[in-house]
């Protein structure tokens, strides 16, 4: 586990910035090392087990699923209306053919993810202004907004005040309004992150802290949440973590009230001079990483089991231990990744075609054989399951099958 004994030199990692109009702004690690160590250890251990998994055969499919899920999650947090299936369909479109704003939002996030992955793989890369501006440009391009300019920092005109948050999530917060203050604070955030990096602060600590302070600066008119989550994910990817950095968006969506409230909780704790003001957000983040990686591990196990099952099915067909009809039945169930009611199966063209010239006895024998070999399961509600999914309420074998 990375060394997080930061307490002796903690004051060296605090940076105060005196702005022109906003007042003093303080960056600090703000976590209690002794208390955070267990959460960090659990997250690290979970990640170590995950990367030791034999998931090379399913890596591409896992990455596609993570991208769709995370684009859906981060977009929905900010008010996106697409369902997860609609998000997947949008990401398959040629960007030049995207016309609908909701689809554009999803495609833009994917473009920012692509940039994130590219820079995270670049040796020696560190967080910089150009990257942040480009992420914002990609995320907000061709999306109408009365004030936002893609890739341009916010500079509020007089009497046009930006507020963040609401009373239901800890209150409204007035971030810096003056462009010069925002510009100065963004540079300070980048410099402070570089200082943490040089000091050996683990990526699992740096990423949420940068996310937290970035959102408090709130440097753009639109897209701040999406940009902040991409920055956070990029820092974690650059530190050697795979899949989880973007998949974490679903954890934030599932815990959206806590996610929004914690920004204000930490801000208010710092304003009151409380010790370790950022601890709650970092702890929340580490628990999210742990849960996210466990979910990914479960999905890898499912996909690996499916590959092994499909390989077994092919082998049984080649060895003539099952016939083409039986192979087709199981393959159709696998393609749906779910159970099918027997009545529904009976009415499908592919099934009626299989037994068009065969009698009921043959149908019964085929199904019984599949059940005996546990290539399919029949439950007590007369649903047929592919053998890779074992239902709890399996119907005992009997004479009447289907």
Automatic annotation (TrEMBL):
Tagged with keyword Coiled coil: no
InterPro entries named in the record: Fido (IPR003812), Fido-like_dom_sf (IPR036597), Fido_containing (IPR040198)
Assigned keywords, A-Z: ATP-binding, Nucleotide-binding
One Pfam entry name: Fic
Signal peptide range: none
Binding site residues for ATP: 222-229
GO molecular function: ATP binding
Positions annotated as active site in the UniProt record: 218
All residue ranges annotated as the Fido domain in the record: 127-287
PANTHER family documented for this protein: FIDO DOMAIN-CONTAINING PROTEIN (PTHR13504:SF38), FIDO DOMAIN-CONTAINING PROTEIN DDB_G0283145 (PTHR13504)
The protein's name in its UniProt record: Fic family protein
């Amino acid at each position: 586990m990375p060394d997080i004994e930061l307490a002796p030199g903690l004051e060296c990692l605090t940076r105060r910035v005196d702005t022109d109009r906003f007042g003093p702004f303080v960056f600090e690690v703000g976590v209690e090392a002794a208390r955070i160590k267990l959460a960090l250890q659990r997250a690290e251990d979970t990640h170590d087990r995950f990367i030791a998994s034999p998931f090379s055969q399913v890596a591409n499919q896992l990455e596609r699923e993570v991208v769709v899920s995370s684009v859906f999650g981060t977009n929905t947090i900010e008010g996106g209306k697409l369902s997860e299936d609609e998000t997947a369909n949008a990401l398959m479109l040629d960007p030049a053919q995207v016309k609908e704003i909701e689809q554009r939002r999803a495609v833009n996030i994917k473009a920012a993810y692509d940039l994130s992955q590219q820079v995270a793989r670049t040796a020696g890369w560190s967080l910089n202004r150009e990257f942040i501006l480009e992420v914002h440009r990609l995320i907000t391009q061709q999306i109408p907004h009365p004030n936002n300019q893609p890739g341009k920092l916010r500079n509020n005109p007089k009497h046009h005040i930006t507020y963040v948050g609401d009373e239901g999530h800890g209150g409204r917060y007035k971030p810096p309004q003056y462009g010069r203050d925002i510009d100065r604070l963004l540079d300070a955030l980048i410099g402070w992150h570089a200082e943490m990096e040089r000091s050996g602060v683990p990526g699992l600590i740096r990423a949420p802290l940068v996310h937290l302070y970035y959102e408090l600066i709130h440097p753009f008119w639109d897209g701040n949440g999406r940009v902040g989550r991409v920055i956070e994910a990029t820092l974690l990817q650059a530190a050697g973590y795979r899949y989880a950095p973007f998949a974490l968006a679903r954890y934030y969506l599932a815990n959206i009230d806590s996610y929004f409230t914690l920004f204000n909780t930490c801000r208010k704790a710092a304003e009151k001079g409380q010790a370790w003001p950022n601890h709650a957000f970092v702890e929340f983040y580490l628990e999210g990483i742990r849960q996210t990686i466990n979910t990914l591990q479960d999905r890898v196990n499912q996909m690996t089991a499916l590959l092994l099952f499909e390989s077994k099915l092919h082998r049984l067909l080649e060895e003539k231990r099952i016939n083409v009809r039986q192979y087709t039945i199981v393959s159709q169930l696998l393609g749906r990744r779910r159970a099918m009611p027997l009545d529904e199966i009976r009415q499908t063209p592919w099934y009626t075609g299989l037994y068009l010239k065969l009698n009921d006895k043959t149908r019964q024998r085929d199904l019984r054989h599949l059940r005996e070999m546990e290539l399919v399961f029949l439950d007590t509600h007369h649903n047929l399951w592919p053998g890779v999914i074992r239902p709890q309420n399996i119907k005992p074998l009997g004479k009447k099958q289907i």
